[in-house]
Amino acid sequence: MTRARIDETFTAPALDPDLWVPHYLPHWTIPKRSAARYDLDEHGLRLRVDADQPAWREADGQMRVSNVQTATWAGPVGGTAGTHRHRPDGLVVVTGTPTWKGWVADAGEVVVRASASPDPTCMLGIWLVGVDDSGPDDSGELCIAELFGDRIGPGGSTVRVGVKAHHDPRLVDEVTDVDLPIDATQPHEYGVRWGGERVEFTVDGAVVATSAQRIDYEQQLMIDLFEFPADERRDPAAYPKTAHVHAVRAVSR
C-alpha cells in the first residue's frame, strides 16, 4: 500500500524495502548498471560511486549513478513507455519493471537533509518526477535541488531548483541557479511545497524560488549521486565518491 508520509532517518540496519528502490530508472537498462552503490552509517544513507561501477546505460556514455527512488513503472519490454523519458528518442524498455509505489503524491511537501559531494565530476540530485503511468504528458519534474561539486563549498554554494517540463506540453522549463552563503558539502535541508497554482522551493526552510505552474499528477521522489567523468580512465585512489542523505520528510495532501 502506498504510504501518505515519509519520516526517514536511515537508522535501521537496511533500507526500508517498502519505501525505497535502490536502482536508477531500472527499466531503461540492466540491473547491474542501474543498481545503487550505498551503505548506511552513523550519518545516514551514504550514496557511493565506486571505481569499478559500470556506466548506467551504454548509450548515455560514461555517466554513472547511485540512486534511491520511491516508485517504479514501465510498459512492456521493447516498448518506449516508462518513467522519466530523459531522451527525446531511442529509449526502449530493457528490463521488465512492475508498477510499484512506495510513496507518491500529486500535492504535498518534501524536505531532504543532505550533504553533497565536492568532487567536480559529481552532482547530487533531489527530484520529484512524474511517474508517467497516467499518460505520456504527465512527466514533469520538480527539481528540488541539483548540487554540482564544482559549484559548492565553504565560500558559498549554487543550488539549482525549478520546474522541468520534459514531455508535458502544459509546462515550460523554469529552472534557476540560486547562489547562497552556505556550504552544501555540509548538512542542509532542500525542500518543495506544491499544490494548486503555486510551487515553493526552500533551502533550510527559507523560500528561494517560486513558480505558478501546476503539476497535479503523481510524482515519485528520486535522490541520486551522479558522476560525469570525462573519459574511461579511473584512478582508484579517487574513489569512492560519496554524498550523504541524512533524513527525508514528505507528506502527500
Short recap of the structure:
The protein has 253 residues and is mainly beta. 2% of the residues lie in helices and 43% in strands.
Question: Can you walk through the features of this model?
Answer:
This protein has 253 residues and is mainly beta. The protein has a single domain, classed as Jelly Rolls (Sandwich). It has one helix and 17 strands. The protein has one helix spanning 31-34; strands at 5-8, 37-41, 44-49, 64-69, 71-72, 100-101, 104-105, 108-115, 122-130, 141-148, 157-164, 174-180, 188-195, 198-203, 206-211, 219-227, 241-252. Strands 1, 2, 3, 8, 13, 14, 15 and 17 form an eight-stranded antiparallel β-sheet that branches. Strands 4, 7, 9, 10, 11, 12 and 16 form a seven-stranded antiparallel β-sheet that branches. A hairpin with an 8-residue loop joins strand 10 (141-148) and strand 11 (157-164). 45% of the residues are buried. The model has no long low-confidence stretch (mean pLDDT 96).
Looking at this protein, list some descriptive labels.
253 residues, mainly beta, Jelly Rolls, seven-stranded antiparallel sheet, 2% helix
Low-confidence stretches: none
Write down the domain tally.
Answer: 1
With helices defined by DSSP (H or I, 4 residues minimum), what is the helix count? 1
Structural class: mainly beta
The termini sit apart by: 16 Å
Specify the biggest β-sheet: 8 strands, antiparallel
Kindly identify the CATH topology: Jelly Rolls
Task: Give the beta-strand count.
Answer: 17
* Helicity range: under 10%
Shape: globular
Please report which band the strand proportion falls in: under 5%, 5-15%, 15-25%, 25-35%, 35-45% or over 45%. 35-45%
Order of helices and strands, N to C?
EHEEEEEEEEEEEEEEEE
